[in-house]
Write a structure and sequence with these properties.
The chain has about 100 residues and is mainly β. It contains one helix and seven strands. The protein has a three-stranded antiparallel beta sheet, with no helix packed on it. A two-stranded antiparallel ribbon has the order 2-7. A two-stranded antiparallel ribbon has the order 3-4.
Length: about 100
């Protein structure tokens, strides 16, 4: 399992309504919002078992740190040993991550 931590630029902040989509680069060709970005990559696991099994943070809100200047999604886990993926960030529920 791993953690995804994103830091905001100076003067910006994250929200608990922010979401991410981890998508296969070949599916979206590097452009978030394109067809195929409404779903997480199949290679991203629903649960991580290390040392005990827990649901992954893939579809939930981030943990906010440093006065909301840092967003943390943890744990995340890939079911493959290699691949190229993009992380699409959907800010503050705008447009949502549930549509292409």
């Amino acid at each position: 399992p791993f953690a995804l931590r994103i830091h905001a630029s100076a003067g910006s902040a994250f929200s608990e309504t922010d979401r991410i989509r981890v998508v296969n680069t070949d599916v979206i060709r590097g452009v978030c919002g394109e067809f195929g970005t409404s779903h997480q990559a199949n290679e991203l696991a629903d649960q991580a078992c290390w040392p005990t099994c827990v649901l992954t943070a893939q579809s939930g809100p981030p943990s906010l740190e440093r006065a909301n200047a840092t967003a943390l999604w943890e744990p995340l886990l890939f079911t493959v040993s290699s691949g190229i993926f993009d992380v699409c960030w959907c800010g503050n529920g705008v447009e949502g991550c549930d549509s292409d």
